[in-house]
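Good morning,

Attaching, inline, the backbone tokens for the sequence recovery test we're adding to the shared suite. The designed sequence is right after.
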């Protein structure tokens, strides 16, 4: 008779126990953060004895769907593969952070992946600040 060694028999009892029985602590909150920050994006989470995983990308209901044509992570998605011990919430927060960082970097690259001249980037930033704080550029803010 052939038997498969369990993870516990191979010396991984603590990891096996944690992933098998630990509650999905913080997952609902992580989902709420994800949906608030990235409305219209899909996500998945998964867990096994080796890792906690998550993926995400924009859908056609997201303002970012046009970026999928540029390829890369905008098309294939953002991914996390966190070794155990970890949580599904940490994995989802990781991909959310990756996506938000990529969104923050869009103005630096003109949203196309191509470098923008530094002067053009400064003008765009000034215009953004002026929109939020009318009169800032002329000193007439009030």
């Amino acid at each position: 008779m052939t038997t498969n060694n369990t993870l516990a028999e191979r010396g991984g009892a603590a990891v096996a126990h944690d992933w098998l029985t630990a509650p999905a602590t913080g997952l609902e909150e992580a989902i709420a953060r994800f949906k608030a920050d990235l409305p219209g994006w899909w996500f998945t989470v998964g867990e096994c004895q080796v890792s906690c995983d998550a993926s995400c990308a924009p859908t056609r209901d997201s303002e970012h769907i046009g970026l999928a044509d540029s390829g890369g992570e905008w098309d294939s998605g953002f991914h996390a593969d966190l070794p155990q011990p970890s949580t599904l919430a940490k994995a989802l927060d990781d991909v959310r952070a990756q996506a938000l960082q990529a969104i923050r970097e869009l103005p630096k690259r003109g949203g196309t992946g191509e470098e923008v001249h530094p002067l053009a980037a400064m003008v765009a930033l000034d215009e953004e600040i002026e929109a939020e704080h009318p009169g800032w550029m002329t000193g007439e803010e009030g």
